[in-house]
Specification:
Largest sheet of chain B: 4 strands, antiparallel
Oligomer: heterodimer
Low-confidence stretches of chain A: 131-140, 216-233
Number of strands of chain A: 6
CATH topology of chain A: Rossmann fold
Mean pLDDT of chain B: 82
CATH superfamily of chain A: P-loop containing nucleotide triphosphate hydrolases
Structural class of chain A: alpha/beta
Strand content of chain B: 15-25%
Helix content of chain B: 25-40%
Strand order of the largest sheet of chain A: 2-3-1-4-5-6
Distance between the termini of chain A: 39 Å
Distance between the termini of chain B: 108 Å
CATH architecture of chain A: 3-Layer(aba) Sandwich
Number of helices of chain A: 8
Structural class of chain B: alpha+beta
Strand content of chain A: 15-25%
Mean pLDDT of chain A: 82
Largest interface: A-B, 34 and 38 residues
Shape of chain A: globular
Chain lengths: 233, 937
């Protein structure tokens, strides 16, 4: 079965790409091992099949990134909110990999592991104000100060637009495309993927309307060649 | 991405490991390596155990996603039990080289039954390969050497490719590709050849339509050059030369696309358009690249970190990579598996889930290739074939080791290799087996889904539970069995909690399927099983099942319900099967306490209800006595609530019933009330009977109680009400009975009924001194009678009050009140004559006002009536005049009586005498007062 659209997760090792996918697809969090090479899932979204590619963050597999990104409808750039370097890496190492993505590719920037920050309890409160019973976060003392703020992600998003030479008016707003999630608790994970899928669908429609971009019509090809070879012979 | 686990076992414990069995045997008996060990091919050399880089046993784990519940960490051998391939020797060392130890296998080619081997000493060997299947299903190969040919160089034969359509073998030796006859290995007379080839490959998806031509792609000895040739039976022709950005090391072709391993990266190059696409970088210094076409427009490449990467001609990966090992020498494809060879092992990964499925120890291998689906692996000295085991067998193996997901993935993939009908049967069975595996692990949701999609015969599941299937069931478990369990006890190993869970699951499952197609053909088995489960679990749905449509088998279910003391339910079962007598007998036993069943606390009422609607007359009569004995009031409902048509038609007529009820006075009263009050049967007998019964009850109560107890009041009210409202009882008979008692009111009522109002009023006024009762009497006695009758009564009462014989002040007051309260009921003129002169106007002012009002009202009403009557009379007269008139015909011959000219318009005037004139003529004559206008058309 050929997927209709492709979504690729990129990001430094250990930021939680596999965990995010795992949380979304299998509804649970479990320790994962360092991804080797890459893995993928198929997600049914309405009438479309969207392939979700999990890439390996390790330097060793960096060379594979371009190939995974080729023709991607969306790229999710993932960092760890407690690790500034992981955000910097996105710009330094991973952005260039997306050159092979489809021209109207959607970019999302996701800060994972917010559950480890001391802001998390606050986030939950604002998020779930209406809930009668708030989850008690007892281990607040073990939380750490967040290293990367949403503003930094927004700034990166704008840099990406500049790099891609895109006009801010033509693409989704930065605030909409920067997410903070926790694969461990599931915080905003569904929201992230569902937002992106909803944006990918119009892209799929456009691609399908424009005709198959990446499919070679062999029958046509063959007949054209045949006349040519006949001429040579 | 399989993880490699380093086994802690010392090499001595090796025989216990299931890992190596297949590979070891193959290797041990046929590969005599240079190391000279006992089993050099097997890779089990104690001396190497300590070597850090070459572990004794690398036991790759399945489970690409890391440790999970599906691959228990303590049973690694379980995960390795899949045997996808079997290693079978094809050409043994002796056949190839005899005693010449220096001959090495350099390359192989296999085309149909023809196996070609090129050696380091420039020989090409031709064998015929016969596949043999023993009766036990074991596959062996027998190779028969046809001939061998020396090519005349001092170089090794580096590559062989057969072009069977041309009957040619392409031989690469000393950078030259020569064409030889496939059968006799003789060079072709024309000597056509391709020079300057480092390596070459055939295009398996050729773009020319010519079947007698093969497309050959070579990496040229010229730097950075690829050349395309057309090779015919006896000539070759160069068609294209392309240069590459770096020196190519390996090439594969599909259509116009070249997949190239360059020095630092893999690329896709369209040799027709020259457009190239980078795939990914790698380092050719560190490892041998692999470029393998695996199907239309798709290649398999050796990637960094021991990855087998998939890439299409568009430069896209459509499958996740497989994680084989760092030093892969060769790769082959045998759907759905990717087979890879490294220094020590042959690994088998599934393309479907990327997991490592099998590892075969294989030392010193240096060639692994697939030829038309046949995977051949070779060391320097011997050639072996990897025989794929039948997919069905592999799936069964997976199921045996409870690897359900993998089995299902493989089964789905097998669709393309197995005929449709056969596949569907097989796939269903696999789904069912998988369902039972989940079931045994108490994963009921998964199990249910698999049972459903596998269209499981539910009885397979039921039969796991002891005693649930009816003894009469013809069910026999499918063979071979779908699971390994004799019954639930074995499955749960006696764990009661698990047992309960399983039973709960079956309950919900059967309940779901019993009304679906799945149940067709064995509804009896399902419903009986469900009944048994409900009964055993004391489940409330038991009763629902029995009162709705069901197919529970009587004998089997009855025995079970009895065993679990579900007597009430048993009664329902009897009833459902038309055995009402048995049902009642059982229920009565429960009520009587002969057997214990607390299902219904209101079972007695239930029985009454049951009998009420029971159409079996005999049965009702049989238990009527019992029911009435239990409760006269409730029991009588079997007669009173019985549907009417039932009472008319058969033995439930009032006489029969009253005969029966004679012993039960309360029931009798209820029944008579029902007849008289509810059904309003106008029979003197019932009315009198009921009145007498009421009367007796009242008298009896009066004799035993002094105060007005509630029951007495109630009965007395009923009595009075009956006496007042009924017109059918025998008045004199009751009156006789009442005489001499203090039931004055009742007596008054009876006199009233006899129209002896004076007597009645006398009782009420003088004996009871109950004036309001007297007034009420006047009112109800005159109900439905005309006004004079009522007036007569009221006047009678007034007379009683004003009886000159008594000057009781009380009576006078009563008289005044009567007049004042009921002014309308009296003829004022007569009253004024009656009242004593001494009474003041003020005393009677309400009466007088009322009387006046009434009188005026009456007058006015009469006037209105008169007026209305006159008006009505006029209308009738008008109608009469209209009906008497006759039509007038106007024509141009008629002339106006005034001007004597004809009418030229439809409008005209007619006089009552019949004369017709023009309207304008009539207008002129308006002076005549008798004229009226009539217009007609």
């Amino acid at each position: 079965m050929k997927p209709d659209g492709k979504v690729v997760l990129l990001g430094d090792m250990n930021v939680g790409k596999t965990s995010l996918l795992h949380r979304y697809m299998e509804r649970r969090f479990q320790d994962t091992i360092s991804t080797v090479g890459g893995a993928f899932y198929l997600k049914q979204w309405g009438p479309y099949n969207i392939s979700l590619w999990d890439t390996a963050g390790r330097e060793q597999f960096h060379g594979l990134g371009s190939m995974y990104c080729r023709g991607a409808a969306a790229v999710i750039l993932t960092y760890d909110v407690n690790n500034l370097q992981s955000l910097i890496e996105l710009e330094d190492r991973f952005l260039a990999l997306t050159d092979t993505a489809s021209a109207d590719c959607i970019f999302a920037i996701v800060g994972n592991k917010v559950d480890l920050t001391n802001e998390y309890a606050l986030l939950l409160e604002t998020e779930e104000e209406n809930r009668p019973e708030k989850p008690v976060t007892s281990c607040i003392s073990t939380k750490v100060q967040k290293q990367v703020h949403l503003d930094d992600a927004v700034a990166l998003y704008k840099k990406i637009l500049k790099y891609k030479m895109l006009d801010e008016k033509d693409v989704p707003a930065a605030e909409k495309m920067c997410f903070e999630t926790s694969a461990k608790t599931g915080y905003k994970v569904d929201y992230l993927f569902e937002t992106i899928f909803d944006m990918v669908v119009p892209l799929i429609l456009r691609q399908q309307a424009e005709g198959p971009l990446q499919t070679v019509d062999i029958t046509n090809y063959k007949s054209a060649k045949r006349t040519k070879s006949g001429c040579c012979a | 991405m399989g993880r490699r686990v380093f086994l802690p076992h010392p090499p001595a414990s090796r025989p216990a490991l299931p890992l190596s069995i297949t590979g070891l045997r193959a290797g041990a008996s046929h590969v005599t390596g240079r190391t000279g060990g006992a089993a050099p091919g097997g890779g089990w050399e104690p001396g190497r155990a300590a070597g850090g880089d070459s572990p004794v046993a690398k036991l790759p784990r399945t489970g690409a996603r890391g440790p999970g519940p599906d691959c228990p960490a303590d049973h690694p051998e379980d995960t390795m039990s899949l045997k996808a391939f079997k290693l079978v020797p094809a050409v043994e060392r002796e056949m190839l080289m005899g005693d010449k130890a220096r001959i090495n296998v350099e390359c192989i080619e296999c085309c149909g039954k023809n196996l070609y081997i090129g050696t380091n000493e420039c020989f090409v060997y031709h064998f015929l390969l016969e596949e043999k299947i023993s009766s036990a299903g074991k596959i062996t190969f027998a190779a028969t050497k046809q001939l061998h040919k020396y090519l005349g160089f001092k170089k090794a034969v580096s590559e062989l490719k057969a072009a069977s359509a041309l009957n040619r073998l392409l031989v690469l030796c000393d950078n030259t590709i020569t064409l030889v006859n496939m059968m006799n290995l003789e060079p072709i007379p024309t000597g056509a050849r391709i020079k300057g080839a480092v390596t070459f490959t055939l295009n398996e998806n050729p773009m020319s339509g010519d079947p007698f031509c093969v497309e050959v792609c070579i990496i040229s000895v010229k730097r950075r050059t690829i050349q395309m040739f057309m090779v015919y039976e006896d000539r070759v022709q160069i068609v294209k030369e392309v240069s590459t950005p770096e020196q190519p090391c390996a090439v594969a072709v599909d259509g116009h696309y070249l997949c190239l391993a360059l020095t630092t990266q893999y690329i896709i190059l369209n040799y027709n358009t020259g457009i190239s696409q980078d795939l990914f970088p790698y380092c050719s210094d560190e490892k041998r690249p692999i470029v393998k076409r695996i199907g239309r427009q798709e290649f398999l490449l050796a990637g960094p970190g021991g990855l087998g990467m998939f890439a299409t001609v568009d430069g896209i990966s459509q499958r996740a990579p497989v994680h084989w090992s760092e030093n892969v020498i060769g790769a082959a494809l045998c759907f759905p598996y990717v087979v890879a060879l490294d220094d020590e092992f042959i690994t088998v990964h599934s393309m479907l889930d990327q997991q490592l499925k099998q590892t075969l120890p294989f030392k010193e291998g240096h060639i692994l290739q697939d030829f038309e689906g046949k995977v051949i692996v070779a060391t320097n000295k011997g050639v072996y074939i990897l025989v794929p085991l039948p997919l069905e067998r592999q799936i069964q193996d997976l199921l045996t080791s409870h690897r359900v997901e993998e089995a299902l993935v493989l089964a789905k993939a097998a669709r393309r290799n197995i005929p449709k009908e056969k596949f569907q049967v097989m796939y269903k069975r696999i789904l069912q087996q998988a369902g039972f595996i989940h079931f045994a692990q108490l994963q009921f949701l998964e199990a249910k889904e698999l049972f459903r999609s596998g269209q499981l015969d539910v009885r397979e599941l039921i039969s796991l539970y002891p005693f649930l299937l009816p003894t009469s069931s013809s069910f026999i478990r499918s063979h071979p069995p779908l699971h390994e369990y004799a019954d639930l006890n074995q499955l749960t190993q006696g764990d009661q909690e698990k047992m309960t869970k399983c039973k709960r699951f079956l309950m919900s499952y059967l309940n779901e399927v019993r009304s679906t197609d799945v149940a067709n053909g064995y509804k009896e088995d399902i419903d009986t099983a469900l009944l048994k489960l409900y009964a055993e679990a004391n489940h409330e749905s038991l009763l629902d099942l029995l009162v709705s449509e069901n197919f529970c088998l009587l004998t089997d279910s009855a025995a079970w319900l009895e065993k679990h003391t579900k007597y009430f339910a048993l009664g329902l079962l009897y009833h459902y099967n038309g055995q009402d007598a048995a049902a009642l007998q059982l229920w009565i036993k429960i009520v009587n306490g002969d057997v214990q069943d607390s299902t219904r606390s209101d079972l007695y009422e239930y029985i009454v209800d049951f009998l009420t609607f029971c159409s079996d007359q005999e049965l009702v009569w049989k238990y009527a006595e019992w029911v009435l004995q239990k409760s006269e009031e409730v029991g009588v409902q079997i007669f009173t609530k019985r549907p009417l048509e039932d009472q008319v038609k058969n033995s439930f007529n009032p006489d029969n019933i009253m005969n029966c009820l004679n012993k039960y006075p309360k029931s009798l009263v209820k029944y008579l009330e029902y007849l008289v009050l509810d059904r309003k049967i106008e029979k003197e007998k019932y009315h009198t009977h009921l009145a007498v019964l009421y009367l007796e009850a009242v008298l009896q109560l009066k004799s035993v109680t002094t105060d007005n107890c509630a029951e007495l009041t109630e009965t007395q009210t009923k009595l009075r009400s009956l006496l007042q409202k009924s017109d059918f009882y025998r008045i004199h008979f009751i009156l006789d009975k009442i005489k001499g008692t203090d039931l004055h009111m009742e007596r008054a009522i009876l006199y009233g009924k006899l129209e002896e109002h004076d007597k009645a009023l006398h009782i009420l006024v003088h004996e009871l001194k109950d004036f309001s009762a007297a007034e009420d009497y006047c009112i109800w006695s005159s109900e439905s009678k005309d006004l004079p009758y009522r007036q007569r009564l009221f006047h009678m009462l007034l007379s009683v009050y004003l009886n000159p014989g008594s000057s009781d002040c009380e009576l006078v007051m009563a008289a005044v009140d009567l007049l004042n309260n009921h002014a309308a009921e009296f003829d004022a003129a007569r009253v004024l004559q009656l009242v004593p002169d001494s009474w003041s106007v003020q005393l009677l002012s309400p009466f007088l006002t009322g009387a006046m009002r009434e009188s005026i009202h009456t007058k006015r009403m009469a006037q209105i009536t008169l007026g209305l009557a006159k008006a009505e009379n006029l209308i009738y007269k008008h109608d009469k005049v209209k009906l008497k008139g006759s039509p007038i015909i106007l024509s141009d011959k008629k002339l106006c009586q005034v001007c004597q000219s004809p009418f030229c318009e439809p409008a005209f005037v007619r006089y009552p005498n019949g004369g017709m004139v023009h309207t304008h003529c009539a207008a002129k004559r308006l002076v005549n007062p008798n004229m009226t206008h009539h217009s007609q058309t």
